[in-house]
Design a protein that fits this description.
Keywords: Membrane, Transmembrane, Transmembrane helix. The chain is an alpha+beta fold and 290 residues long. The chain contains six helices and twelve strands. The longest helix has 31 residues.
């Protein structure tokens, strides 16, 4: 838990000074000459952002899913090595439409201007299947459907972003998020804050136990069934063998040499009768009746 909080705090520290684009509204900024960075919380949804220059336009604009540690020229000359998404505007002097089809955590937009100017951003989520990218636990959970994420025992958990009701009724669920099971309460609330009219976030109370067996895996279930059949089948053969041997005196099947005799005893061979040693039959006299 402590390590998770530390990582989360460090990530927030790296984002310090970066303007955040709020989705569902117009974001206006005044830019001085040089390079600037913005971020939009995608929350593992498909995303559309429009960058609108008010005046001369941008000198250059690039977007990626990785945060750059500096805003020097290298930020605009090449994509980060570990980035899954990276794009450039063909004509940065006009409105730039940025469409992110892959489900990622955050999108960073880097803008370079040669003189002081103003610009606006607007963005929103849109529906559809995520484009395939290199998978990690966050992207795996983000690409799941409601039903897939609600399975008990998986690495992903379903969370709700809620708005408190003023009239005392149950809070209204505004949206749901599929996140890794080890996400902290602070991170969950922070993610929900990016949605309009949302007060807080919390994990879903219960999960779908009817699908829990699916997490074991089909191959594991098949192996367990086969092992159970083999065990009870072996016990049945041993019982049948001993029953036949006792009732008929003969084994019902021929056993191999490696069969343990304690389970498959061999039939006893009948011993021939031996005359008693030192025994002399008595002489019997037969009278002559002539």
């Amino acid at each position: 838990m402590f390590l998770t909080l530390l990582i989360f705090s460090l990530s927030n520290a790296l984002d310090f000074g970066i303007e955040e684009i709020k989705l569902g509204t117009i974001n206006d900024y005044t830019l001085k000459t040089g390079s600037h960075a913005f971020k939009a919380r995608a929350n593992f949804h498909r995303l559309k952002i429009t960058a609108m220059p008010n005046g001369e336009g941008f000198d250059q604009i690039r977007w990626t899913d990785k945060l750059s540690t500096s805003l020097d020229e290298t930020t605009f000359l090449k994509c980060p090595k570990d980035s899954a998404i990276c794009g450039d505007a063909i004509d940065p002097s006009t409105n730039v439409q940025i469409t992110i089809g892959a489900c990622v955590d955050e999108i960073y937009i880097y803008v370079k201007v040669s003189k002081e100017s103003t610009l606006s951003f607007s963005g929103s989520y849109y529906q559809g299947d995520c484009d395939p990218i290199e998978e990690n636990l966050y992207t795996k959970c983000g690409a799941m459907t409601y039903a897939q994420c609600d399975v008990c025992g998986d690495e992903c958990r379903l969370a709700f972003c809620k708005k408190r009701s003023r009239d005392g009724k149950d809070p209204e669920v505004k949206t749901s998020l599929c996140l890794p099971y080890n996400v902290t309460a602070e991170e969950l609330t922070d993610r929900c804050d990016d949605y309009m009219n949302v007060d807080y976030g919390e994990w879903k109370d219960s999960c779908n136990k009817s699908l829990e067996i699916g997490n074991i895996g089909a191959l594991t279930i098949i192996m367990l069934v086969l092992m159970t059949i083999a065990f009870f089948g072996f016990i049945g053969i041993v019982t049948w063998y001993n029953f036949k041997l006792r009732t008929t005196g003969k084994p019902p099947i021929k056993c191999f040499k490696f069969c343990p005799e304690i389970l498959f005893p061999h039939p006893r061979q009948a011993q021939p009768a031996q005359p008693l040693r030192g025994y002399q039959p008595p002489d019997i006299e037969i009278p002559d009746r002539r």
